[in-house]
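FAQ

Q: What does a record look like?
A: Structure on top, sequence underneath. For example:
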């Protein structure tokens, strides 16, 4: 997802780093935390791309971060860039807590002191833990030795772990409900950005396949049925990207305080979720048996899109949120909700 505010040289540098990693990786594509790559990205100022410069960050913005996430998806690199920079370290800075160079993720505990499907908890060094306390929230920067972690994975093998902790053992700094609300929206939008990147790559792969492969003496792209499949992929990917870019622009322009931002994020998540179904189905139909093999890259994008669309809220959850907000707005205020 490229925005005009992103320096092309920065984009090229991101691509070069991830391409080098991919070209040198001859092992299994099962996601593991690559400490060498993380160190390289840290030296380039990319692991805390949006962090404040006075606390060791690079001072960039969400457009640059979106491009970084997109480049990682494009090259099949799976590391907790978003969880570390955009979620965990952001929350520490916003709460006035110190930030060091440790790798981090973030989780929101339920009333029983548990969080499920926590991204990368089993491989990071620290976890920013948030939990409800009466009518407020508390947060603590916990070491992994302070919590109990039960490893798990999502459908593409990325760590999605269960974290259990007694909040009373952590102390904690008060954080506002507004910050926790922003954390939820940022987490959701991160996954929309990643899903869009995966859908765009599935589209690119489909176009390349139908223009290069021949059947009955002519390219697959000359068959009308194939054209319809690819056009549907392109339309759904474009819709998802448009909705996500609209939410991101509103968030950045308003410093995450736009009055209808929750509606825009819900729309982005709904669009990307439903687009993933069409894109995955059509892309595999276009590629045929070749697209189901582990050697072909298509599954890196299609399976990732299906995994990520269900995280930080399922497709049904965001559909319901969107419906509730539209019904609550009523006929008089619905248009202003859609086009604020």
């Amino acid at each position: 997802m490229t925005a005009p505010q992103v320096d092309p040289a920065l984009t090229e540098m991101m691509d070069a780093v991830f391409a080098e990693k991919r070209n040198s990786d001859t092992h299994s594509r099962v996601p593991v935390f690559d400490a060498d790559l993380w160190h390289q990205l840290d030296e380039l100022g990319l692991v805390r791309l949006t962090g404040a410069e006075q606390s060791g960050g690079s001072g960039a913005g969400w457009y640059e971060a979106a491009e970084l996430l997109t480049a990682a998806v494009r090259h099949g690199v799976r590391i907790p860039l978003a969880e570390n920079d955009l979620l965990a370290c952001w929350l520490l800075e916003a709460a006035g807590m110190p930030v060091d160079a440790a790798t981090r993720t973030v989780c929101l505990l339920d009333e029983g002191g548990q969080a499920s499907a926590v991204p990368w908890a089993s491989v990071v060094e620290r976890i920013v833990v948030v939990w409800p306390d009466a009518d407020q929230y508390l947060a603590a920067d916990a070491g992994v030795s302070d919590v109990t972690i039960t490893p798990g994975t999502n459908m593409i093998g990325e760590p999605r772990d269960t974290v259990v902790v007694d909040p009373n053992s952590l102390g904690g700094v008060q954080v506002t409900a507004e910050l926790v609300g922003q954390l939820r929206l940022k987490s959701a939008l991160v996954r929309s950005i990643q899903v869009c990147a995966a859908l765009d790559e599935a589209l690119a792969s489909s176009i390349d396949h139908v223009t290069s492969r021949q059947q009955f003496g002519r390219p697959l792209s000359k068959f009308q049925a194939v054209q319809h499949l690819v056009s549907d992929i392109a339309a759904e990917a474009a819709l998802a990207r448009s909705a996500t870019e609209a939410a991101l622009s509103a968030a950045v322009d308003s410093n995450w305080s736009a009055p209808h931002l929750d509606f825009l994020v819900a729309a982005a998540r709904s669009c990307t979720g439903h687009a993933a179904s069409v894109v995955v189905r059509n892309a595999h139909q276009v590629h045929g048996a070749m697209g189901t093999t582990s050697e072909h890259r298509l599954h890196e994008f299609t399976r990732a899109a299906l995994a990520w669309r269900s995280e930080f809220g399922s497709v049904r959850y965001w559909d319901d949120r969107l419906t509730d907000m539209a019904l609550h707005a009523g006929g008089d205020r619905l248009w202003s909700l859609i086009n604020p």
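Q: Is there anything notable about this one?
A: The mean pLDDT is 92.
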